[in-house]
Each structure stands twice: as C-alpha cells, then as structure tokens.
Amino acid sequence: MSDDGGRSAKRPGRPRSASRDDVRAVAMALFEQQGYAATSLAQIARAVGVGRTTLFSYFPAKRDLMWGELDSRTERMRQSLAASTDLPPMEVIVAAILALSHYSAADRAAFTARWRIVDADDELRATVALRRAELSREILDGVHRRAPELDRERVGDVVHALMAIGERATSEWADAAEVSEGLDTYMARRLEPFVVVLRPLLG
Q1: Does 20-65 match 68-202 in CATH topology?
Q2: CA 184, CA 103: separation in Å to the nearest integer?
Q3: Where residue 17 falls among pLDDT bands split at 50, 70, 90?
Q4: What count of other Cβ atoms lies within 10 Å of the Cβ of residue 145?
Q5: Statement: the pTM of the whole predicted model exceeds 0.90
Q6: Which residues bind DNA (predicted)?
Q7: Could you give the count of Cα atoms lying within 13 Å of 9 in the half-sphere of its Cβ?
Q8: Alpha carbon distance 137, 116 (integer Å)
Q9: Residue 80: which residues within 8 A CB-CB, separation 6 or more?
Q10: What is the CA radius of gyration of the chain?
C-alpha cells in the first residue's frame, strides 16, 4: 500500500487531442475577435489546448488555416476540368468556376466569416489574388488542351473576365442579408448574361 492512504499517485494526463477541424474552428474565432495579423499560432495552440508541435503538424504556417475550403474546391475544379473533355470551351470555363463556387446556403455563415477575415487583412488579400491568378491559369490551360486552335490570349481574357464577375458575385452572396440558394446557383445566374455575350469570342 502506498503511504498516501491507499490513493494512487496522480499521473499527468495525456495531452488533449484535437482534429484539424477543431483547430481551424478555434483559429477562425480568434481571427474574428482580434484579427488575423494579431493572432499567433502560439495563441491558437493555447486556446485549443494542444502543444505547438501538434499544431505545426496540422498547419505548418498560420495562413494554412485559411485555405482548407479553397483546397477542396480547387480539387473539385480540377476534377471538373478532367471530366469536361466533350464540352465546348465556354462550358469548360463555366463548369470550372462553378466547381470553385460549390457552397450551399447552409455554408454561408462560415464562408462569410472567412471572407471578412480575408478582406480585413492585406497579406490574405494578396494571397487570395495570387491563388485566383493560379486558378485562372489552370482553367486556361485546361481549355487550351482541349481546343489548342483557339487564340490563347483571347481565351485568357474570357477566363479572367468571368473570374472577375465570379468574384463580384461571391461578394454579393456573402454580404446578402439573406440567401436561399447556394453560391454556385447564384453564380450561374450572374454569369449567364456575360457568357452569352462572350461565347462568340471562343467560336
């Protein structure tokens, strides 16, 4: 028997475990409360209750916390490009943009929170602009592989124009007082008149 009256010595508890989604949810709350730039990974780790090593194994850099959704949508866009071998060029472009915009009405609150965090931070806005340019280039490359006879510069102009309209539509959807449809549905309706006008440029 131990000399503590039969009670076993207290052993240190195991470190708390947390999923990537847990960490991201806590980080988003902190970003909303105090701003992205003012929030450190150390603060996030303390708030989650994990060590910095655990946090770094999930998210090596703070900006990685922001892009989980975009990464999954980017993969959806790539799948759309891979599956659109029989579509006309304009439909390839539109399908890719809509794949990037696959958010339901139920997703809007979380999406809008992220959107506002990004909009309030210069570094994040610059990163989004860079990623948007990379996505536009991927779409352009996808169209060019299917229709190499088209003027690449003209296709690029169409892609950039529709991506810009899509960005505006995304902002409108995020900022609306109330929505009853997903972003992709809203996006398709906003793109349609421009698609009609621009389609002759792609033959």
Answers
A1: no
A2: 7
A3: low
A4: 11
A5: no
A6: 40-59
A7: 5
A8: 26
A9: 95, 96, 98, 99
A10: 22
CB atoms inside a 10 Å sphere around CB 96: 27
Q: What is the pLDDT of residues 27-72, one digit of tens each?
A: 999 999 999 999 999 999 999 998 888 888 888 888 888 877 777 8
Distance CA 52, CA 105 (A): 35
**What is the homologous superfamily of the domain 20-65 according to CATH?**
Homeodomain-like (1.10.10.60)
- How does pLDDT run across 188-197, given as a tens digit for each residue? 999 999 999 9
Cα–Cα distance for residue pair 44/192, rounded to 1 Å: 42
Which structure tokens are listed for 54? 């655990």
Q: How far apart are CA 190 and CA 185, in angstroms?
A: 9
Residue ranges of the domains in the chain? 20-65, 68-202
CATH architecture, domain defined by 68-202:
Orthogonal Bundle (1.10)
First to last CA, the chain: 89
**pLDDT at position 155 over 80:** yes
Whether residue 1 is predicted with pLDDT greater than 90 in this model: the reply is no
